[in-house]
Amino acid sequence: MFSKEESKKIRQEFWTAFGTNYPRKWLLYNTKIKDVTLKFTLTTKLAQVSIDVEPSDEVIRAYYYDKFLSLKSIIISEYLDDIIFNEFYELENGKIISRIYVELENVSIHNKSTWSDAMKFLHDKMLRLESFFLEYKDFIES
User: Fold this and answer.
1) What global pTM score does this model have?
2) What angle (nearest 5°) sits at the alpha carbon of residue 16, between those of residues 101 and 14?
């Protein structure tokens, strides 16, 4: 088990190493669509790359989720065949969002021997997710 300070230091070390090994300006929060973001997640159990739809207004969240859902066959056939759609994804803090994501299990931010696999996964999957998002951004926001 790690203290909060040790865990924070390890997380910083991972993300610094990731940025060094895979230098790139990612889209992430700069989608130009309010409340729609692309995210990297690495926990002590898994890595995820996701599109998060998290407005406070349920109607807006459902609207954007339905837009992504209408593109499901395209994203599966052309970008990420293992993508998961979850309209009611619960975050650790209890907040419910819609999340479209891929994940890799059995990696841990606290286990440096899994970092290489996690970094490769995060990089490769985010490249594909960004490509999809940029290709269909106009449709998503219309």
Assistant:
1) 0.93
2) 60
**Which helix H or strand E contains 48, and what residues bound it?**
strand 46-53
Judge contact between 49 and 39, C-beta under 8 A.
yes
Q: 75-105, pLDDT tens digit by residue? A: 999 999 999 999 999 998 999 999 999 999 9
Residue of 6, 96, 100, 9 lying closest to 50 (CA atoms):
100
Residues 6+ apart with CB under 8 A from 79: 128, 129, 131, 132
Structure tokens at 22: 């895979």
- Confidence category of residue 56, pLDDT binned at 50, 70, 90: confident
Between CA 35 and CA 17 the distance in angstroms is 28
Q: How far apart are CA 133 and CA 137, in angstroms?
A: 5
pLDDT of 6-34, one tens digit each? Answer: 989 999 999 999 999 999 999 999 999 99
| Rounded distance between C-alpha atoms, residue 30 and residue 53, angstroms | 13
Please check whether residue 49 is in contact with residue 104, taking contact to mean a CB–CB distance below 8 angstroms: no
Residue 109 token pair: 């931010």
CA 106 to chain centre: 17
